[in-house]
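Duplicate of #3305? Posting structure anyway:
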């Protein structure tokens, strides 16, 4: 089975421009391809995870990846999937995020000996001459056709700024530059980027008379059709400073039964034959598959040692041994106390278990919170200085444990 056939078997491929040519290129290691990452935060997140896995798979098959960091396009902001305009970022903040991305990408992609490249589109976009750009590129784009793109449709009612309208042109120009400078003949991305990617292949055809190719991968959606990688407290990050290895492990350990096999196929490097055996599991036996999923992905992001720690901790917690030293912990200070105590609602927010006091109140009233194995139903419940000094364990629902201690 070639790598292209494996991508199909794993449910990754969504749309392609020319299937037979793409199949031949990537199966024979002839593709120089790129995937773009806009540095809108100081860490990659689960939404980037599948793209990084795809780059790794294709590089293992002999193809050459180009990781394009959008230091220039981040100055505009991609309107795809947005109902409002992104916050403008400074050059300094973007550059900081770029440096963070470089470190994280190195865990997936081998950049040694020219096996891969990492480039920043700020190197060519920020110095463009406006009139020159209009003459060189703008003449090849039809406004009527651009407005039919799905990435713009959902913004039209709320208002699409001219700034964001240029994003498609910038992404197309990236592909054109990469084709010229590095022989990049393919672009990969999420299925919501299809219109932007086609714009790039069309620009190359019009400007150079050459064929370039595009392939999109299916978005990682749960059984309800929502993007995976979000929790009540926000995104699931690849940085241990933003999402601990334990919380990362727990996110995948707790996926819905109907999503576990799909995630194993799309995100792990386990052989398909092994996944096929796991697919036969039913009921409570599916927990074995969830453990494997969580371990494999945590090892891929954080290494074997952290994956093993997270697994040991999770198993201990499910066995009601909720004092393991590897449990995620939040330290509070005297400033967090009111007198000699602290309210449970505030502690839930401080620990990142809820996003607001209102959400914390609802969880307490609904019986979803326990402190040291005692269910809390009173939103006014407080915890004493003495208890906090010893450390308390907050349990949210059936599966989330968090330690809070006063330092």
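Output from current build:
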């Amino acid at each position: 089975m070639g790598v292209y056939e494996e991508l199909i078997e794993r449910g990754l491929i969504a749309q392609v421009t020319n299937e037979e040519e793409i199949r031949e290129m990537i199966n024979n290691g002839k593709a120089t391809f790129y995937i773009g990452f806009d540095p809108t935060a100081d860490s990659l997140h689960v939404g980037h995870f599948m793209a990084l896995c795809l780059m790794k798979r294709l590089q293992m098959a002999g193809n050459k990846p180009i990781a394009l960091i959008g230091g220039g396009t981040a100055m505009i902001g991609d309107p795809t999937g947005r109902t409002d305009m992104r916050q403008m970022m400074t050059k300094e903040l973007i550059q900081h995020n770029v440096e963070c991305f470089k470190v994280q990408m190195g865990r997936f992609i081998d950049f040694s000996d020219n096996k891969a490249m990492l480039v920043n589109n700020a190197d060519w976009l920020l110095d463009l001459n406006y009139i020159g750009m209009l003459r060189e590129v703008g003449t090849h784009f039809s406004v009527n056709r651009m407005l039919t793109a799905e990435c713009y449709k959902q913004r039209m009612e709320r208002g699409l700024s001219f700034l964001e309208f240029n994003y498609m042109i910038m992404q197309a120009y990236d592909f054109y530059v990469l084709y010229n400078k590095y022989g990049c003949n393919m672009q990969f991305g999420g299925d919501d980027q299809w219109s932007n990617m086609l714009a790039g292949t069309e620009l190359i055809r019009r400007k150079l008379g050459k064929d370039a190719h595009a392939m999109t991968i299916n978005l990682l959606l749960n059984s309800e059709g929502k993007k995976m990688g979000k929790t009540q407290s926000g995104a699931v990050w690849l940085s241990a400073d933003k999402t601990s290895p334990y919380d990362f492990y727990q996110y995948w350990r707790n996926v819905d039964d109907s999503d576990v096999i799909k995630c194993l196929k799309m995100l792990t490097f386990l052989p398909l034959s092994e996944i096929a055996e796991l697919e036969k599991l039913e009921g409570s036996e599916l927990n074995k598959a969830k453990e494997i999923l969580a371990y494999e992905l945590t090892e891929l992001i954080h290494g074997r040692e952290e994956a093993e720690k997270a697994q040991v901790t999770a198993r201990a917690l499910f066995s009601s041994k909720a004092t393991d030293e590897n449990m995620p912990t939040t330290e509070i200070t005297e400033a967090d106390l009111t007198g000699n105590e602290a309210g449970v609602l505030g502690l839930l927010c401080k620990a990142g278990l809820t996003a607001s006091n209102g959400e914390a109140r609802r969880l307490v009233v609904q019986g979803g919170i326990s402190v040291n194995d005692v269910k809390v139903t009173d939103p006014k419940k407080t915890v004493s200085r003495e208890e906090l000094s010893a450390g308390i364990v907050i349990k949210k629902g059936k599966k989330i444990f968090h330690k809070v201690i006063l330092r």
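Confirmed duplicate; merging threads. Confidence is low (pLDDT under 50) at residues 81-86. Residues 286-302 form the longest helix (17 residues).
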